[in-house]
Amino acid sequence: MEKAVQQKRSAVADLSLAAAADLARLGDGKIAYIRAMTSDEAQRMFPTVEGLPDGINLFALHGADGTPLALTDSHHAAIGHAIGDKLEISSIH
Predict the structure, then answer these.
(1) Angle at 54 between CA 49 and CA 56, to 5 degrees
(2) Taking the model in full, what pTM does it have?
(3) Are 54 and 87 in contact (CB under 8 A)?
(4) Among candidates 86, 58, 92, which has minimal Cα distance to 74?
(5) Domain assignment of residue 21, given as a range
C-alpha cells in the first residue's frame, strides 16, 4: 500500500513539473503573472534590492517560467509594468 502511495505522489510531482515546463514554453516571453509577497520573501528573491522596509507587502512580476521581472509596492504598478512590457497577465492559484 505504501509503495502505491509513493508512486502516486511521484506521478503527481512529475505532472506538476511537466505543467510548469509547459507553461514556460507557452509563455515564451509573452505571459507573466503577479505574486504578492512579504518584504522578507522579496529580499530573498531580489537580493540586489536594498533598503526594503520590514513588514510590508510587495508585488513581484514574473515571467511564465518563474523569472522575476519587477518588484513594486502595488498590484496596480505591477500590472502597469506588464502592460509596458507588452506581457499578458495570467492568473495563478
Answers:
(1) 90
(2) 0.67
(3) no
(4) 58
(5) 2-89
pLDDT in tens, 33-81: 999 999 999 998 888 988 888 889 999 999 988 889 999 999 999 999 9
Report the distance separating Cα 7 and Cα 83, nearest Å: 42
User: How many CB atoms are closer than 10 A to CB 89?
Assistant: 14
Domain count, the chain: 1
Q: Residues of 55-86 as b/e, b for ≥16 C-beta within 10 angstroms?
A: eeebbbbbbbbeeebbbbeeeeebbebbeeee
| Residues paired with 33 in a beta bridge | 62
What 3-state DSSP class applies to 79?
A: helix
Single-letter residue type at 14: D
- Would you mind telling me the total number of residues written for the chain in this entry? 93
Beta strands in 9-87 (DSSP E): 31-38, 57-63, 68-72
26 sits in the region (left: phi over 0; alpha: psi -120 to 50; else beta) called alpha
